[in-house]
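User: Here's a protein and a ligand (6-phosphogluconic acid). What would the complex look like?
Assistant: Let me lay out the input and then the predicted complex.
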Amino acid sequence: MARRAADYVVEKIQEAILTRGRAMIALAGGSTPMATYDRLAQPEERNRIDWSKTYVFFGDERFVPLDDPESNFARANRALLSAVPIPRPHIYPIPTQVATAEEAAEQYQKDLAKTFGISSSHEPPQFDLILLGLGQDGHTASLFPGAPSLSVTDRWLVASAPGTLRPYVERVTFTFPILNAARNILFLVSGSDKATALREVVEGDVQANDFPAGGIRPSAGTVTWIVDLAASAKLDMSRRAT
Ligand code: 6PG
């Protein structure tokens, strides 16, 4: 899974640099992508990427200090970013050092607007690639079932109250408008506890309010799922992992 995912990430970064001169990607939190991050840090993958033209963001963050072991940035930094020659100014952690999660969301929207060279009141920027995970309850990023964040249409990021997911802290998350503006979305899903949610989101007729991952439908982009055998167990046979 990590090999396939790392290969996909490298390809999308190369494609973006070739066509637009730089690659804008957003990483996911959670534990599933860690093996992919480790793999991307290995010389055979690391050396396929022009890091001087790659910019790394985060699709959601726990509202904890950036050096907290639960921080999505801290984990990605340890596994990947500190092990590759990416210029430090190309790494954009969600700024959790500010007073509130709302403030962090507002500040990050401004940081994104500046880096993409657009106005923050403009349509959301188009990421070349956004990595996402899937929760047992159908959440993705920090968009939780039934949460007010699911109906936000006028902001790229919002603060979100702690959901039912550990760690039980406030979060800052991308909203549907920015996620669905992406050129490519890659979901990484592993484990048998995700099998029902995966089936519902991929094959069911779910509402985003109940299964937020079902609301990921990029208007002009692709969605790719890389899942392990256990997570794929309840999918239609023709889609099962091999
Ligand atoms: C987080 C996430 C969250 C995660 C899923 C899957 O901050 O925890 O962004 O959406 O991707 O909960 O997490 P696992 O990969 O740990 O199962």
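Summary: The chain is about 30% helix and 15% strand.
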